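call fold target=Phosphohistidine phosphatase SixA
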Amino acid sequence: MDVGIEKLHKNNLLAEKVLVAHSGKLRARQTAEAVMKALLATGFEASCEERVGLSPNDEPASSLELLECGPTKVLVGHLPHMGKLAAAMIKSPAAAGRLGGLFHPAGGLALRRENADWVEAAEVVCGEPWWNKADA
């Protein structure tokens, strides 16, 4: 098992069941399928689904309901939407530009729940152990 995945399990940062949701656009679907395959290969129960509300110009409110309950979610989308969605989740609309800047190719932003609120956990950068920051 990958060291990062082991650490996520150990610190209960990722549930056993994961939904990988994507916009339906080709590259987002391909990325979501690759994430799902990696999760399945490391022992997670994972599914991959197209969901409304993750397209580039969608309003964040259209995808917030995805986060209300159920399994851990990995959302694969596009800019500027992902920055706006992250800002809406942490209740800081002014942060949309800064948070949007964290979404690099094969990267993203990890958020976690603290009581009823979402907070920034770590920037996800391909090839870097982001999970070390996410469990702080």
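return ok
The longest strand covers residues 117-124. The radius of gyration is 14 Å.
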